Each structure stands twice: as C-alpha cells, then as structure tokens.
Amino acid sequence: MLEIRPPGDPARTHRPTVLAAEPGRRLVWRGAASPSWLLAAVHELVLEDVGGGTALRHRERFTGLLVPFLRTTLRRTAQGFDEMNAALRRRAEEPPAA
Fold this sequence. Notes:
Strand order of the largest sheet: 3-4-5-6
Mean pLDDT: 90
Shape: globular
Number of helices: 1
Low-confidence stretches: none
Strand content: 35-45%
Oligomer: single chain
C-alpha cells in the first residue's frame, strides 16, 4: 500500500504492482484505475553511480484517456515528487550523527 499526498490535494491510497525491485539499484511499480485504460502510471526510481556519488533518477509516465483532463493534478503530483527528491537529498547529505 502506498499513500501519496500531492501539494494541494488530499492524500490518496494506492495499491500498486511492483514490476522490478533491485535492492540498492532500482524500484519500479505500476498503478492503475479500474479499468486501466482510463488511467495508469509506471513509476521508477533508479540509483546510479556517478563519479564517487549517487544520482537518483525519478520518473513517472501516465497513460490513459483521463490524462488530458488531469493536468492540474499531475502538475501538483510532479511538484510533490520534486519536493520529495529535495528532502531526500537534504537527508542524504546530512553529516552522520556522532
């Protein structure tokens, strides 16, 4: 179960299907409305080694007939992902506790 709370929207609970899980490397899941041709999304988080550090590649691709009607919600969702990524970066860059 996954709870997503885009800025300005109420929290929503999802039950996605995990498509790939490679510890320390990659997580991919798919969520969909019923029926899925109305709205579906594939979400991917990938960690990449970049010259002594790690980069996070984070993306989501939406498909379905409802996508054109959800532009405002999808913009807020993207904003929420940006905020999550920034918080993750701050946490990852914190000095270790003594």
